[in-house]
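From the pipeline queue, job 12 of 40. The input is one protein chain; the requested action is below.

Action: predict structure.
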Amino acid sequence: MGGGKEVRNKKVKLRDYVRNGSPKESDLCVSNEDTIKLEVPEGSNGVIVKNLYLSCDPYLQFLMKGIDTPHFTPFSPGSVSLITTASYDVTVVMVDGSGHPMPITGYGVAKVVDSKYPDFKKDDLIWGIVGWEEYGLITNPESFFKIEHTDVPLSYYTGILGMPGVTAWAGIYEVCSPKEGEYVYVSAASGAVGQLVGQLAKLKGCYVVGSAGTKQKVDLLKNKLGFDEAFNYKEELDLDAALKRYFPEGIDIYFDNVGGKMLDTVLLNMRVHGRISVCGMISQYNLAEPEGIKNLLNLLFKRVRMEGFAAPDYYHLYSKFLETLLPPIREGKITYIEDFAQGLENGPSALVGLFSGLNIGKQVVAVSQE
């Protein structure tokens, strides 16, 4: 579809920074007034892509609030957004070449429409940070991964084979090094990352318990995702008693997605030489005053190692990651649950729903399924 054809280009844009609480659907708008030429401009070594799937991820709320993170610069409502990724120590600048306000950005799977970048050709499939739009110009394509394995669903590259998958794999295998027979606890266990963490731990012969916020999610953990046990944390009046019920001998590895009171309680139940992988703290993101942690002395008494990390720190190991994940996926030893929103126009509601736990599994926006 090259040759300079000009088409309308639907986009999701940020109206203004989110000032208080969780992002709302009204903070975003869907625009259909912009156009884009499906040809890379002269002098650019970029690529034009057609977006197929977009990833809804918790970190996006930071960018909607104007908060700097080590890997991403906040969205700029009504102006061009500068997006930085540490995967190859490059800065990825998303521009549409027409002067129109930019869409929000995030991880996505795209098909190359036109390319002046030597490593990508027309019809190649790639994943990386794209605009929330139907078509886009990528000016730094060296930060993208070419999709070589298409015998699995392409949407997997927004999840189990994309950033969330690398997060789960690195957090449990590289940070925590689980051993057979160890006791593993995963919070927010039914999400894009947590559901995979539990299954990876099971592949190593661990005893795995997960927590989630609804009966439906708890049932999925136990009956479909292979967790040994699971519980609804909202139904537990005493988290310490709950953890002692499921881990009478203590916890070797805690994969933390929520922080706050849960983390503080887990610290009381860690075993000697335990490991805590800090992936997220979703319970704290929208509080006016974050909750304090009182039980850190257990890190000292029990010689527990607690480490934060981010997926881009491990992108250089992506080939190793694929070698680990693809075989059990193909053999049916790993199940991955996705929750699809159809059409870019339904992207804002899907993204906002993620922040209140409305999704079941990995939240994906299907822009085009060609």
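Job complete. The chain has nine helices and 19 strands.
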